[in-house]
Amino acid sequence: MNDQETIQDYCYDEAAFDYHDRAYIPLQVADAPEQPLRIPEILKPDQETATDVYYTITAQTGAVQLLPGKKTATWGYNGPLLGKTVIFKDGQTVHIHYINDLPEVTTFHWHGLAIPGPIEDGGCHAPVYPGQTRDVEFTIHQPAAFVWLHAHPCPATAEQVWHGLAGGAIVQDQHEAQLPLPRNYGVDDIPVILQDRRFHEDNQWDYRQDYDPDGILGPTPMINGTINPYFDVTTQKVRLRFLNGANRREWRLHFSDDLPFTQIAGDLSLLPKPLKMTKLMLTCAERAEIIVDFGSYRPGDEVVLYSDDTPLLRFKIHEFKPDHAALPNVLFETPNPAVAPEMPIHYVTLDGMDEAVAMNGKKFKMDRIDYQMPMHKVQLWDIENTNHAPGMIHPYHMHGTGFVTVARDGHAPNPNELGLKDTIAINPGEHVLLKVWFDVPGVFMYHCHILEHEDGGMMAQLKVVDPKNPNKQYQLMDHMTLMRAFAEERHVPLNELWLGGMDSYRKMGEEM
Ligand SMILES: [Cu+2]
Questions:
Q1: Which residues have beta carbons under 5 A from ligand 1 (an ion)?
Q2: In the chain, what percentage of residues exceed pLDDT 70?
Q3: Domain spanning 28-173, CATH class
Q4: If you measure from the C-alpha of residue 344 to the centroid of ligand 1, how many angstroms do you get, rounded to a whole number?
Q5: Domain coordinates in residue numbering, the chain
Q6: Which pLDDT does position 4 carry in this prediction?
Q7: CATH class (in words) of the domain with range 346-477
Q8: 194, 310, 371, 455: most buried, per Cβ within 10 A?
Q9: Which helix (H) or strand (E) holds 460?
Q10: pTM above the 0.85 mark?
């Protein structure tokens, strides 16, 4: 690498950054003592063999001491808040036993896993009702990446993630394992899940009070479920696996002293080559892995990670052994399969803002298939954000696959978009061209990953048809079935049920 390649730009339309929104809530440091960054434990398998691994994942309620005073009521997986880090190995068959110990229906969606849908994928068609369980089984066939688990019941995805139903998962493969990269989990390889919350009376969260159809924001940064966190640096190089787990917020990351860092991976794979940069923007659901070299600091120094002007995480430098090993120049060969000539470009538009959000002019319907696509065929997808400038940046996400970014408005993609991705930020007025293919069958959603936008209807679903089983039928649920369950579980009549996304349909006069 040479210095000319250092990226010193956030790469997106500044006029569309979230801080221009009239409802924007700036981040501020909480009036609370600093705390060690929580490192989610690795989830222990119930059983593991050379070919198979068995996990139990329980969605549960809990309470966490986030601020001085009262504990905050939270939700989590196998713990009170967020989740334990799940390890998946390429080639392994995974068996998961889900338990719902929450008071209401939820689903368990693996964001970033290329596994069949809609049941294994765990979107809105795979509910687990309170007190009930579900078992799924799938095989991992994909490159090393940092993916995540989150709730996805429509239209209450946003509210359940806000309660805490989100956790990281690491896909490991043999290629990545052989590269000289930090991977001592919790020491020089740490997840950094970026979220924001507003604390109300008695330190509680209040989703409905904070609701905004363009996405809920809170002033307090919460990193891995920690307020005012610090991390003790004991190695010269530290690998940070960032996940934007916020409902709405964009994170514009940079370090004190404009310390350069090296991005090595995006959402679903390593990058073709490491990229030196000083600024990194992540929109909702995007991931990035970076390596920070603290070699120019001494014990007692502190390095601060910021988003815009707000400190998020303090790195306290301790003694470490010098590590001047260079990173490899080549990290990954991004697949580049040929487009099937018989497949015309498929167009998707991300439309509107506030309650008017839609995709291709329509709001999402759980029992409607919007598109059919043959398995293994590669197709160009043109994703357009039809917002007029200044508008908003919409992070576009696809379930069940990783795609290759071909072009932004006819220009080369940003250099850190050259690996496999599952979520891509689209500027207002922009067309982003993707190469899309599916290697697993099923029904999959694709949507804006501002969680209130997806609940509000900026979402659609496709059916991937396996040529070996072209007539396979999928039992699709509808919104009303889930909403009746929510009404019953919340002990309110259906006409008094409030779920954020329902507002967006009602206000636009649309049936669910
Ligand atoms: Cu959006």
A1: 394, 448, 450, 453
A2: 99
A3: mainly beta
A4: 25
A5: 28-173, 346-477
A6: 52
A7: mainly beta
A8: 455
A9: strand 459-465
A10: yes
